[in-house]
């Protein structure tokens, strides 16, 4: 794991805990559990609060424009809060019962608890950014709202794709850009904005974040079908179980031959048992969906790395950004 | 109906529609339906988007400190967006199927649609306030976040009271201050902040908003048991059906005699049919719960009006604030 992820976690973790301590007790418990700071009864744990890719990106992008990482800390905290707001609500909507090897918040505390904790984190993100206001923080806050709006639109699109047969790879990529790309682009932009970096660097780093997000989501979609539950912390073939029109599935369905018709029938028929899931996964692979998603991940990694050439950036941070991008894509292959 | 509510609706309505037009189509449809701008298929309607008490309060509080109401328009829009975010999510949590004489958003579009539309409105509220930033707008935005945090805490408390037997009037009033008072206090404060009114006026108007909120909620609680469905747009005795520990119920349970035990048994037993609901309502009244809630509404109305004496305010706006407060309380008796 790149060192920057460890640094981001140790910088952002205590700050997030401090912000969570402002929440009313029942909301705070759900948020602390979800973020890995507490067990279901509220006892402190040193658990797994996620990879901290978004905070790492914000901190590195401040360094890339020549500032100290600490400049971007409120932004790193805010993007991580927004990310976790979306996880809390997405798990309710997708009825996912497992995340990071534990029960999801709604499965443990009920839907209302998870909805309210998500609401509270979104609200807290703005407080974290604006509590000590400055022109850069206000601009960062607007960038965060724009990214959040796109993320919500992407999740709405993802939900509606589940019931839609006309999915194409193109539509899927558009959804991924909104759902995942926008917040990673926002994290990068916010880091550079708080560092008061030049406009050209901000735009380059936002492009880096967007393509990193697309690569990240392509890998996530691969893991959602072929990932090892022991590593992902989620059930096997979870995306097929939930009939998600993820990238490999969209690519397979786009082939439009007898195989695609068979896959469509499997995904629209009665709930799939383990052998049905295995058959659907084989079909997606046979129809080229796995290969296509790998290609997208590699292509986006390439675009991501070349975005760094668009502006002069500090060498050390640039090297760490490259390492972070490689790590994100190599989770799978 | 006080003229200021009509003025607020005609000032804020088109602005909110303009902000909603930024949302992605599936999210926008749910938000427009919920706010009464569209029917379920998205055709424009000139429907009922609510009373606009919060925007009216923001606009009047700007006028009360000597500014033009237009100064507070972005704040009026933002508080109405936050209020509607909370309605969308609360209806999901409370499983309410009817609001403003129509199906609620989740009942029509599903839970995911309502959750996402609520998320989008909360996010939009910050954009509406900060899009053209100024120190006053940043301060208003922080005031809005604080109010939103209290509102979320209040809703969490309300949800947990449903399953809690140890409710008291005191605890209920604290919950009402968070759930309803905070956003009305926030609306008043934001109006005066955007008008750059003096600190003393801001504090007086916030107190006015807080006590107005408590009076408002006390009346809402009365309507939640004894309101006429034709007038409220909600089912008869809805709060008893949902076993809400609303103010009249809390006051009745606090009597702790045989009547309270009987009421408790009714509210914790199997789901109540119409005659059970009527019996529970009679019990609450017999135990003094209805009278107590009316007293709270009148007391809070008094506190609300006397808060206006705390600072010099423009006479016309002060008169309209008084009229608004009377209207809020006289909805019931």
Task: Jot down its keywords.
homodimer; mainly alpha; 73% helix; Farnesyl Diphosphate Synthase; two-stranded antiparallel ribbon; 2 strands; 333 residues
Describe the structure.
Two copies of one chain form a homodimer. Chain A is mostly helical. Chain A has a single domain, classed as Farnesyl Diphosphate Synthase, CATH 1.10.600. Chain A has 16 helices and two strands. Chain A has helices at 3-20, 25-34, 53-64, 73-94, 105-109, 111-130, 135-162, 169-194, 199-226, 229-232, 238-241, 247-254, 258-268, 274-286, 289-307, 315-330, and strands at residues 98-99, 102-103. Chain A has a two-stranded antiparallel ribbon. In chain A, a hairpin with a 2-residue loop joins strand 1 and strand 2. In chain A, helix 2 (25-34) crosses helix 6. The first copy, chain A, is globular, with a radius of gyration of 20 Å. The model of chain A has no long low-confidence stretch (mean pLDDT 94).
